[in-house]
Structures are given as structure tokens and as C-alpha cells.
Automatic annotation (TrEMBL):
<dbReference type="InterPro" id="IPR017568">
    <property type="entry name" value="3-oxoacyl-ACP_synth-2"/>
</dbReference>
<dbReference type="Pfam" id="PF02801">
    <property type="entry name" value="Ketoacyl-synt_C"/>
</dbReference>
<feature type="domain" description="Ketosynthase family 3 (KS3)">
    <location>
        <begin position="3"/>
        <end position="414"/>
    </location>
</feature>
<comment type="similarity">
    <text>Belongs to the thiolase-like superfamily. Beta-ketoacyl-ACP synthases family.</text>
</comment>
<keyword id="KW-0275">Fatty acid biosynthesis</keyword>
<protein>
    <recommendedName>
        <fullName>3-oxoacyl-[acyl-carrier-protein] synthase 2</fullName>
        <ecNumber>2.3.1.179</ecNumber>
    </recommendedName>
</protein>
<keyword id="KW-0012">Acyltransferase</keyword>
<dbReference type="GO" id="GO:0004315">
    <property type="term" value="F:3-oxoacyl-[acyl-carrier-protein] synthase activity"/>
</dbReference>
<keyword id="KW-0808">Transferase</keyword>
<keyword id="KW-0444">Lipid biosynthesis</keyword>
<comment type="function">
    <text>Involved in the type II fatty acid elongation cycle. Catalyzes the elongation of a wide range of acyl-ACP by the addition of two carbons from malonyl-ACP to an acyl acceptor. Can efficiently catalyze the conversion of palmitoleoyl-ACP (cis-hexadec-9-enoyl-ACP) to cis-vaccenoyl-ACP (cis-octadec-11-enoyl-ACP), an essential step in the thermal regulation of fatty acid composition.</text>
</comment>
<dbReference type="InterPro" id="IPR020841">
    <property type="entry name" value="PKS_Beta-ketoAc_synthase_dom"/>
</dbReference>
<dbReference type="InterPro" id="IPR014031">
    <property type="entry name" value="Ketoacyl_synth_C"/>
</dbReference>
<dbReference type="InterPro" id="IPR018201">
    <property type="entry name" value="Ketoacyl_synth_AS"/>
</dbReference>
<comment type="pathway">
    <text>Lipid metabolism; fatty acid biosynthesis.</text>
</comment>
<dbReference type="InterPro" id="IPR000794">
    <property type="entry name" value="Beta-ketoacyl_synthase"/>
</dbReference>
<dbReference type="InterPro" id="IPR016039">
    <property type="entry name" value="Thiolase-like"/>
</dbReference>
Length: 417
């Protein structure tokens, strides 16, 4: 079968270090941390009292107040990021085939705040069931794709992938596959998450997954550092407009990069811990390279999952060495979660954007907050510590892994006619 080539023609980002793509990229290359004390609720009694929240964001600046009240924040975030991406793409909605335009979105949790608020209110009452009529449609993860498709009239493939922290990358891979199989011309893809709530922070605290460095939030996310003690929870959204190359060329679109491959695998090991030898991470990168028809030595940059957990970072670095061999020492590797925190189901979207912009700007964003080498991490790996680096980047690979052992990798490449 003749597969279509797939390109990225629009980007949108709503992140803890910038509410637009230019602001986000500026934060990345300057090593800005988005971590700060939690403002969403009183976190005084929580073991972790900080997170990477959005800054200066008001949904009603973008969405009608009445409509915004019908949506959980994760849906609001998605709509705002998509609005930027659509404008950036230059798509003329009057000149496209809406039956061949779709939305494939990702969210690991969906409407957590809505669920928490509704159940809390019920338990505080006298037992009489008084629930918001929008409770269920606000909460369900797939509603984000529904709202996006309604706004733009896209009648093609429409669904949300749920694979924990791998969700958005799963969505991007699905979008890539639908287009290259000629089942759609355009797909809005990406992911959104809004888990900075009492239930979100409390739940991850109970697992001992979050950093508890309350005296220094901005240095708490420290991937690959010997003193890392867990991830920092983030929130936000990332949106990418994917198109078949022929559709993009026909309308004279700006092309950021080409999507050339995607891989998926399972650890089949533990519900939350990664495979100790990085087997799933190794397999997913091998699968992505095979799908892209690339050799390991053709990759220039890896945006790693790199959450800042003791086990996860070690597993991933081990997998990179096993897949790339001696070429691993010629790569640039970085974890942008050191700045944004972990956006869970939206992580893959903003990290794919970081990878694409790294190609566009020929600049590797850093892994900030490195203070002490971990003797278990090969010191010859270039983990781009603390400062962005200029280099030639033609191919970038982005990893995202999720609870349940879900692994995804997507590969983007400098567009060449």
C-alpha cells in the first residue's frame, strides 16, 4: 500500500511555563521552572505543597462564560491550545472537506476536578442525589475531542486515547496512522490534563510518586540527578495539526516537520514501576525506528520521558544505551519535564512540540536542576544539563511512558521536499 506522508502544520501550547507556543519555547530554552506553591487549593496538610500550575490563565478570556461552566478545566485547556494551533495552521474552514477532518485527542484522567467536586458535594449533603446535569459529560475523557470537533465541524475520526502518561503520544500516533492510511486529510491531535486537585495531589502522594522538596519547588524536578525524589505534577495542553503532505502542499501551508514513525509497547511488568532493565522502553524505540525506516545513528535528539523518579530515569537511560549503542554518546538527550513538570496525559503533546521546535531552531532545550551525578547513569551520555545547546538536529524522537506499562515513541524529522 502507498502510505501518505504526514506533516505538522500548526502548533498550540498551554503550559506552566508559557500560555502560547512562543512563550513556551522561550521558557524551555531559558531553563525556566514552572514549579511553585499550589494556589488551586489549600495544600497545607499535603506532603507535597507545590506543582507546576498554569500562570495567568482565565478560561473566560477564550470561552464564553456560560459554555465554560459546562466544561471541566481539562477540556477548556484543550480548546484553548487547539485555537492557537488552528490559527497557526492557516486552515480555511470553508475550503476543506469536513468529512475527512478529524480529532484524536489524549487525556490520562479527564475530568478529575469535576468528579471530585460532585462527589464531595453529594457526601456533604443529606444523601439526596443532587448532581449537576453536566456532571457526566464534563467528566468523561472523550468529551474533549467532542467539543473540539463541534467547534470546528470536523466529522472525521473522533476519539480520545487513554493510556496514562502515554495518552497524547498514543493520540498522535493514531492520527499519523489514520492520515497515512488515507482515512483522513487533517487531524487535530494532542492532549490535555487538569489534575492539580486535592484528589490528584493526594493520590500521587499516597503512591509516593511526587517530589516532596517543599523548601525548593523550582529545583524539585531534577531528572537523572542522584537526589531526585519524584515527579512534579503539571497541567495544561498541547495541540498539533497533522495533515497529509499533499493536502498541506495544495493549500500552500507552512510545514514545521514531518512525522515519520511511531512505536508502542508494554512492559508487562508492574502497574506503576518500569521494567528494571528498560525492556519496554527499549522495544518501543526499536519499534518506532523500524516504523520510520531509520537507523539508530540517524537520530540526533531524544526528548526523554525523564520524570525525575528514581527508577524511571535509570530504566530509560539503560534502554537508550541498549538501543543506540555507541551512538548514544553522540546524541543530545533532555527532559523538558524538569521545567514543565509532568502533564500526565498531555505530556506527549507538549514534548512533541518541544521536539519539533528543537528541529526548527536547531537547539536542544536543557534538563535543568542537575546538581549531583548519579553514578548509575552513564556519565558519557549528553543529558544537556542546565543549559540549552545548539546543534544540527534532523531527526528527533520523543518518549512517553505510562502507569500500566504503556510505552510510546514518536519520531519527527526535518521536512524535505
Amino acid at each position: 500500500m502507498n502510505l501518505k506522508r504526514v506533516v505538522v502544520t500548526g502548533l498550540g501550547a498551554l503550559t506552566p511555563i508559557g500560555n502560547t507556543v512562543p512563550e513556551y519555547w522561550n521558557g524551555l530554552v531559558n531553563g525556566v521552572s514552572g514549579a511553585a506553591p499550589i494556589t488551586r487549593f489549600n495544600a497545607e496538610k499535603f506532603r507535597t505543597k507545590f506543582a507546576c500550575e498554569l500562570k495567568g490563565f482565565n478560561a473566560e478570556d477564550h470561552i464564553d462564560k456560560k459554555e465554560a461552566r459546562k466544561m471541566d478545566p481539562f477540556t477548556q485547556y484543550g480548546l484553548v491550545a487547539v485555537e492557537e494551533a488552528m490559527k497557526d495552521s492557516g486552515l480555511d474552514l470553508e475550503k476543506i472537506n469536513h468529512d475527512r477532518a478529524g480529532v484524536i485527542w489524549g487525556s490520562g484522567i479527564g475530568g478529575l476536578k469535576t468528579f471530585q467536586d460532585e462527589v464531595t458535594a453529594f457526601n456533604a449533603g443529606d444523601g439526596t442525589p443532587r448532581f449537576n446535569p453536566f456532571f457526566i459529560p464534563k467528566m468523561i475523557a472523550d468529551i474533549s475531542a467532542g467539543y473540539i470537533s463541534i467547534k470546528y465541524g470536523f466529522r472525521g475520526p473522533n476519539f480520545v486515547t487513554v493510556s496514562a502518561c502515554a495518552s497524547a503520544t498514543n493520540a498522535l500516533i493514531d492520527a499519523f496512522n489514520y492520515i497515512r492510511l488515507n482515512k483522513a486529510d487533517i487531524i487535530i491531535s494532542g492532549g490535555s490534563e487538569a489534575a492539580v486537585t486535592e484528589a490528584g495531589v493526594g493520590g500521587f502522594n499516597a503512591m509516593k510518586a511526587l517530589s516532596e522538596r517543599n523548601d525548593s519547588p523550582q529545583t524539585a524536578s531534577r531528572p537523572f540527578d542522584a537526589d531526585r525524589d519524584g515527579f512534579v505534577l503539571g497541567e495544561g495542553a498541547g495541540a498539533l495539526i497533522l495533515e497529509s503532505l499533499d493536502h498541506a502542499l495544495a493549500r500552500g501551508a507552512k510545514i514545521y516537520a514531518e512525522v515519520v514513525g511511531g512505536g508502542m509497547s508494554a512492559d508487562a511488568n508492574h502497574i506503576t514501576a518500569p521494567h528494571p532493565e528498560g525492556l519496554g522502553a527499549m522495544n518501543v524505540m526499536i519499534n518506532a525506528l523500524s516504523d520510520a525506516g531509520l537507523k539508530p545513528e540517524e537520530v540526533d535528539y531524544i526528548n526523554v520521558h525523564g520524570t525525575s523518579t528514581p527508577l524511571g530515569d535509570l530504566s530509560e537511560s539503560t534502554a537508550i544505551l541498549r538501543v543506540f549503542g555507541e551512538h548514544a554518546y553522540k546524541l543530545n538527550i533532555s527532559s523538558t519535564k524538569s521545567m514543565t513538570g509532568h502533564l500526565l496525559g498531555a505530556a506527549g503533546a507538549i514534548e512533541a512540540i518541544a521536539s519539533i521546535l528543537a528541529i526548527k531552531e536547531q537547539t536542544v532545550p536543557p534538563t535543568i536542576n542537575h546538581f549531583t551525578d548519579d553514578e548509575r547513569v552513564d556519565p558519557k551520555l549528553n543529558l544537556t544539563f542546565n543549559k540549552a545547546q545548539k546543534r544540527k538536529i534532523r531527526v528527533a524522537l520523543s518518549n512517553t511512558f505510562g502507569f500500566g506499562g504503556h510505552n510510546t515513541s514518536i519520531i519527527v524529522k526535518q521536512y524535505e521536499a
